[in-house]
Amino acid sequence: MERRDIRNFALNVSGEALWGFQAAMIAPATVLAVLLRDLGAGEGMIGSILAVESGAILLPQILGNYLFASRARRKKRLMAFHFVVILPLLGVMAGLTHLTFLPHELLRWLLLVSFGCYVCSIGVVLSAWWDWFAHLFGRNVRGTVMGVTWCAAAGAGACGALLAGGTIGAMPGFDGYFYLYLGALVLAVLSIVAFCFVDDSPAQAAADGPAMNTARLIGHFKESLRDRNFRAFLIGRILGAFGFCILPLVVIYYMSAQGGGLPKQDVVSYGSALALGSAVANLVLGRLGDKMGYRIGLLLGAAAQFITLGLMLLTAGPVSCAAAYFGAGLCGGAAFVSHQNMLFETCPHEDRMAHITVGNLVMSAAFVTAPLLAGQAAGIWGVRKVFAACLVFSAAAFLWYLLRLREPRDDARLTVKARRLQERG
């Protein structure tokens, strides 16, 4: 890598590690789930956390195509949006944890809505952020950079999760949650400051393309969806979403008698294994993807889902809890690094941001619906039966990837535009 690339790599790792630490301190699947449980939330609301997170982060991405269309000004606009919109919402959630004199039913909904607004604001920048990242590093090293970066973020996240568990156990009432959200705000500010120093001068010097308009955006959406391999990728990801829509319900299972009756602070601490599993998957599959393509990562992620669900169905107790979160981290890491790069590489035209957006919009239906259904089903039939149903979907996702998904790098039918896009990185 050139000197500029090495500097950007170091800043990217630093920024994402800080973000990963703060995100794990307030992880929705553990910390927010336990907080809402302390406020009297049932299985339906706990299950809806993942639905809110998925829908709020995926659906608003279409706005980014308009707000961040200019490549020359994209970095400045992305950083400004974080400071003005995203980061203050962490302060709002910290403040809400101090309003425990309010009726707990109201406070539960205020926290869930505030969380939804926070994730929604992240969703607005997401496709633009990933397109910006994709242009910072060449295709031959992008997976490795992403893998190392998110390994660092996940490793820092493991420390953040341990800190969260210790803080909740050490502080009475809701004080621990307040300090966790406040600390997350400080670290998030430092993270974005690090990204402010990233050098994207080639992008700033480049001329912007035609102004984005709705007709052009829809045209790119249609062109993406006409690609058969891209459709196969989307179907597999939808099956996978139904196969592992139960992450917040893991807290309920291991705090119940069936799962071993573990204390809440222990479950949150064992949640650090989630970050460790993600670190391993990102580091290994990022490099493997650069060498062999990213289809293999999706296959391994689906297999990890099946094994993790089977583990939870067959075992209970602290070791089972830590192993389940580690397996969930493997699933998430495999899906993340392989998912993002498959989005990059299945693009059949020159507007990658539009391609990323339409892919995430299509998948959002499953990512929102599946956790809502899982939460409601858990309230009626119990968590274990939901785990069993997810096992079937995970097996179906694995078979679909195996039989129907092609590795984009081996696809001889890539369009000329797509080949030029890949050559440009």
Would you give the CATH topology? Answer: Growth Hormone, Chain: A
CATH architecture identity: Up-down Bundle
State which percent range the strand residues make up. under 5%
Gross morphology: globular
Cα(first) to Cα(last) distance is: 14 Å
| Succession of helices and strands | HHHHHHHHHHHHHHHHHHH
Question: What share of the residues lie within helices?
Answer: over 70%
Q: Give the strand tally.
A: 0
Computed over alpha carbons, the radius of gyration is 21 Å
Considering the protein shown, what is the CATH homologous superfamily?
MFS general substrate transporter like domains
Count every helix, treating DSSP H or I runs of 4 or more residues as helices.
Answer: 19
Low-confidence region ranges:
412-416
Largest sheet: none
What's the average pLDDT? 85
Task: Give an overview in words.
With 425 residues, the protein is mainly alpha-helical. The chain has one domain: Up-down Bundle (Growth Hormone, Chain: A), CATH 1.20.1250. The chain has 19 helices and no strands. Helix 1 (3-25) packs parallel to helix 7 (139-170), helix 11 (228-243) runs antiparallel to helix 18 and helix 17 (352-381) runs antiparallel to helix 18 (383-404). Mean pLDDT is 85; it is low at 412-416.
